Amino acid sequence: MAVVELLLSPLAAHVRTARLVTVTAARRAGLEDGLLDELRFAVGEACSRAVGLHARHAPGVLVRVTIEDGPAGLVVTVVDAGPAAGPVPDDVSAGIVEGGDLAGDDGEHDLVDPDVALALLTGLVDTATVEPGVTGTTVTMRWPLPVAARGPGATAVSDT
Amino acid sequence: MAVVELLLSPLAAHVRTARLVTVTAARRAGLEDGLLDELRFAVGEACSRAVGLHARHAPGVLVRVTIEDGPAGLVVTVVDAGPAAGPVPDDVSAGIVEGGDLAGDDGEHDLVDPDVALALLTGLVDTATVEPGVTGTTVTMRWPLPVAARGPGATAVSDT
Amino acid sequence: MDLSLSTRTEGDRTVVVVGGEIDVYTAPKLREQLIDLVSSGQYHLVVDMEGVEFLDSTGLGVLVGGLKRVRAHEGSLRLVCTQERILKIFRITGLTKVFPIHTSVEEAVAATD
Amino acid sequence: MDLSLSTRTEGDRTVVVVGGEIDVYTAPKLREQLIDLVSSGQYHLVVDMEGVEFLDSTGLGVLVGGLKRVRAHEGSLRLVCTQERILKIFRITGLTKVFPIHTSVEEAVAATD
Ligand SMILES: Nc1ncnc2c1ncn2[C@@H]1O[C@H](COP(=O)(O)OP(=O)(O)O)[C@@H](O)[C@H]1O
Ligand SMILES: Nc1ncnc2c1ncn2[C@@H]1O[C@H](COP(=O)(O)OP(=O)(O)O)[C@@H](O)[C@H]1O
């Protein structure tokens, strides 16, 4: 089982690194091309949310992204140390017209509203689960991998 | 200070991910273009060595790569859980003609000889230090960063 | 990969052509662009998203912010987008109810409420 | 980024043109190629490294392995490389003493010891 774990300080640029690493690892693990896009969007969203929360509430703590391919398929986990997530809203458009702003309370910054991020994420990925915990939130996403087609990335160094 | 930490199971493919992440982070941190190549070679070497050692001696343990940019410049650390490194050989060509093999004892596999990797690494990077410890070896490499030119990657999410 | 921006005028509308990735890293650039247009009195905007490869909720937030700014001046913000992967992002968040979304710049420029 | 390999014959020499990255991930392909050539009786090899962008110690190991295999048959393995960044890797490891390194395929093909 191939594992990549990425720990990131809360910088916007690192969200791109997380997308890149996840998409690369997923492609190597054999994830269908048709699913790569969904993965890219979902991981981007989970990471922007986490990075935004850390920037505000826990700037010294690293965001943790884990990518595993195993019998359960491709499992991507994003763990943050922000305030625990509340229930995921169903429709975020409500209230926007009379002044709510998707980009957080603070109109001067382009922070991700963590609720909107979760709504988008769970809307994109059927298997996404959001677990609020004492120290933060864990977002877990799963995608199926073709049973036989484990890519060359699954080859251990000593298998030649 | 931007930090990226990457934990990798011992697969050859992951060495490429480590190169990619390190080069990307270094470029964002403002490392001179002329030094990116040296960084790529050195990190690749440190990671192939670590991945090779883990594949043989600690397949369940993740290799740890840390990239930090701070007042000390760009600092890249690769930590493995293999047998502690011995003294770095000066010239690895000796003995090759009569049968030594750069690619490890096991001629059937393309494992990196950890001594050759260290020789190459310390030959490439003046500032590289190799510290054998109880649980493995830590390779640390430093590169200077332009004082003023901290790239856009250094911008925190909330600085807009 | 990075964000590209260009603007042109068509009659009383300003068309903003966006390409690349609108994410937490690049969204501030788009936000500035929209603020600049509104500050210079351009209140009828058409944002052409056909070249957008990636859009996250920060990008959505910037578009919503732009909408609120033009509305404060009785203006409009219309989107041009036919890419299913991007439309999906608007649908999931319910924002298809908030933004008029057109299939071409011509259609968006010609549209009135 | 990936490794590319092609071979051609010039007189009694076989030229292997290598491009891309020779690293711990791709080196096995090069190793197989060299083994195949030796198995099929081609003992005088010229490895053209001009298109190589990256070389690590696994790649060096594979080249040394190839050298040993051709030597077992009184053969030769010559390298073509003028890229300073790649030459540096051979110099640091002392392998410039082990491999004849030429500045062109013509020179390497024409060379005898
Ligand atoms: N060199 C790079 N450094 C950092 N992030 C990158 C780099 N190249 C691509 N990305 C990011 O990684 C993600 C996936 O990479 P991309 O190049 O789009 O892969 P694909 O080949 O699937 O199009 C993109 O969202 C992009 O932001
Ligand atoms: N999509 C990718 N997935 C994994 N590794 C990659 C990818 N693209 C490049 N790399 C690796 O990352 C390293 C640096 O990337 P590269 O594309 O060479 O950057 P540069 O733009 O500096 O040439 C290379 O050694 C390559 O092996």
* Backbone shape of chain C: globular
Main sheet: strands, sense, barrel of chain C: 5 strands, mixed
Query: Can you count the beta strands of chain C?
Result: 5
Instruction: Supply the number of helical segments of chain A.
Output: 3
String of helices and strands of chain C: EEHEHEHEH
Strand content of chain A: 15-25%
Q: By helix and strand content of chain C, what is the structural category?
A: alpha/beta
| Main structural class of chain A | alpha+beta
Strand line-up across the major sheet of chain A: 1-2-3-5-4
Structural domains of chain A: how many: 1
Strand content of chain C: 25-35%
- CATH names the topology of chain A as Heat Shock Protein 90
Cα gyration radius of chain C (Å): 13 Å
Largest sheet of chain A: 5 strands, antiparallel
Q: What is the CATH architecture term of chain A?
A: 2-Layer Sandwich
Oligomer: heterotetramer
Notes on the structure:
The complex is a heterotetramer, with two copies of chain A (160 residues) and two copies of chain C (113 residues). Chain A has 160 residues and is α+β, with helices and mostly antiparallel strands. In chain A, 34% of the residues lie in helices and 21% in strands. Chain A has a five-stranded antiparallel sheet, with helices on one face. In chain A, helix 1 packs antiparallel against helix 2 and helix 2 runs antiparallel to helix 3. The two termini of chain A are 17 Å apart. The longest helix of chain C is centred in the middle third of the chain and has 15 residues. The mean pLDDT of chain C is 95. Chain C has a single domain, classed as STAS domain (Transcription Regulator spoIIAA, 2-Layer Sandwich). Chain C is globular and about 30 Å long. Chains in contact: A-B, A-C, B-D. At the B-D interface, helix 1, helix 2 and helix 3 of B face helix 1, helix 2 and helix 3 of D. Strand 1 of chain A pairs antiparallel with strand 1 of chain B, so a sheet runs across the interface. The structure holds adenosine-5'-diphosphate (2 copies). One adenosine-5'-diphosphate sits at the interface of chains B and D.
